[in-house]
Amino acid sequence: MIEVEQAIKLLLNSCHPKVETELCPLSTANNRIAAKDIVAKISNPPFNRSPLDGYAFNSADSKGADKDKPIELIVISIIYAGDDPSGLSVKPGQAVQIMTGAPIPNGCDCVIRQEDTTCIQELSQDFGQKFSQDFEQDFDQKLSQDFEQALSQDFEQALSQDFEQALSQDFEQALSQNFRKKLIQDCGQELSRNFRKTLSQNYGQELSRNFTQKLSLDFVQVLGQELSQKLNQDFWQELSQDFEQELYQEFSQDFGQELGQKLSQEFWQELGQDFMPEFSQNFGQELCQELSQKLNQDFRPDLSQKLAQKLGPKLGPKKVVIYQELKQYENFCFEGEDIRMNDVVIRAGEKINAIKVGVLASIGVSEIEVYKQVTVGLLCSGNELMDIGQTLNPGKIYNSNRYIIEERLKDFGLKVIILDNIIDNPAQICENLLKLIKKVDIIVTTGGVSVGKRDFMPMIFQKMLATKLFWKINMQPGTPVLAASLDNKVLLGLSGNPFACLVNFEILVRPMIAKLAHDETISTQKATAILDSTFSKKSVRRRYIRAKYENGRVTLPENHSSGSLYSMSLCNVL
User: Fold this and answer.
1) What span, in angstroms and rounded, lies between the C-alpha atoms of 104 and 97?
2) Lowest mean pLDDT among 113-127, 186-200, 515-529
């Protein structure tokens, strides 16, 4: 019987690291071990680039800039990520708009955040005059057409409904009083003398035609009907009486001229003052909303497109206003800031992880040379074992050892070849192990290593002409461990009890496969902690106990049987 440390030393001296290599696509390189140094063939980033959205320029141009004395720079171009600005050179007084990740062009040594600037664009004086002429000549015509289209029948109907609501009974009464008062006071007398002379049938027809040209026929009819219903009979009767008393005389042919003179600008203004206050605020808001919706939906988009077409080729230079002084290379990512050409980015023996895969991708590496994966042969012996998926016969147990060891080996990135459960037939086991050892780097068996009548593994290893390294270790559980060497490969026979098998694996197998795979992350780690539980069992050998480690303290489960697995599932250390 030897000590654990001695057993580990013997095992490590008998196994040899994997030397065979293979090319591995980067997409499957995670958890593999690099066999050679990997040198960057390009720098990353491969050019000076912007770390943010903003404007790039020469920092000297911003000297003295502040909120009270901003600096204006002419923007000559815009650069996006993926653009090639090699043919662009930014001169003093100029800037380029630049996006995150875009190459910084020649002549620029700093970048300012877009949020810290103001962008302006000026119209040239010549364009202003020309645009004014164009606007008067053809835009007014188009504007009137668009406006007529915008004021569709739907809007007119909606307007008539709003008008109907607005013309409340109070307003009608006030209107009738104001209308009678205005006609009687200001022009009643003069109008009464001339009205009968001038309102000829022809004038009425002409007036009607002019009015209907301005308002669409449908709208006029609808509004007329609504207005006539709203202005009640009492108002018309009262108005007609006043009209007859003051105005009913002979008509003169010169009424048009007299009426035009009498209904002067001052009259309309005064009438508007009397008329407008009677419209409720709601009517004004509703009318404004209706008109605004029509203009926004139908008129404004068309107008903005036409205006953009007119403005586009005529606009003056785009400028950016800088309100602060920037230092040289402020917000500036240098070429090779992350990785420089010829840098060693991965060392031989280094384990590849997801971040390192990304690093390699950033410099264009598509495949790497790695050590071939270690292959482990696994045999779980014992007549009592049955595989999962079968109906458990009396006296039998399911082969949990196979799945525990197989999955632990896969945890460490190893390949596993399983020998199907073989009955306790030494000759057959020997034959199968001799075939298996040619395909693998190490063989692990479980069961058959103690002193029972069917513990055949010592005899089998001897029959295979393997050199025994040791049998039995000063440890509990898992004392009867058997180790041998054949063809520079280790054969290790572990205990058959599930927990004892797992202890043997963690303490003895992991150091070996770490060496074979060039992967020190597989090796076990030690830590000192405070035991919060008590363990009353006496131990004559070095005892390995399952436990739960957390924040420097350790607690023990209740069940410590070597055949118990469930309590181990609640633990994370030995």
Assistant:
1) 10
2) 186-200
